[in-house]
Sulphotransferase Stf0 domain-containing protein
Amino acid sequence: MARKPVTWYIATPADGIIETSRHAGTPVNLAANVGQVLDHPKPCTNLWFDESPFSYFRMVKCVGEALEDTGIWPITWPVRLWIVQPLGQTGNWSQHYSPYRLLSHQIRVLEETDAHRALGPCGRDVLDVVQQQIPERAVRWAANWDANPEGMRQRQWNWEQCGGSTCGSGQWAQSVAHATSHARRESAAQTWTEHLARRAVDQALADTNASMHAYSYAYARAAGHAVAAQHQARFDAYVLDALRGTGLDSPAAVAT
């Protein structure tokens, strides 16, 4: 049986320029060269050793890791995702530690593909949570915190450390999510998902008087909701509700 061809990916900012190539002063624009063969503008001489931040074309075969080591900062959206073909001699720093990554000095830009794939199989849902749901919820989360800081601090601690009868603890669920992302080769997807969620909080609260602690609380809730969207098809409610902090938005019980 013939082996299925490997698909290789490179992620860029919205303008299609490889960010590390821009930083190196030799910008390479994938968007302007679809279907073309590109030679590295300044290839290093010592193979598989970085002589500069842009010594090679760096690509991955696991799309969930396409956003790793891109040089894009701050983490923002949109980005663009490209399918490329490595040409000539190829290699890697370590087949043991980075078997999904490949280096080359020549590529062919085959086509652009949907960027949401870099955020995992549920990337569209992740973006919906980040762009459509978090902005409104962040304002409510911050307001809830500042209305009752001590009470919310205790409730957050209970969520993170203890969980409840129908869901695990927040910290436990986060560790499960990170382990799953690592096993699925989606660590970069989760890192970006969390950063995009926090960025959405920053934008939503920019014109409010939310306290520093309210921001921190909203960050945690937003990241949990976004990561739950990333893994929604893999986890049951016991994990997903723990990530989302189900119960924190309900009115606190009144002591009697």
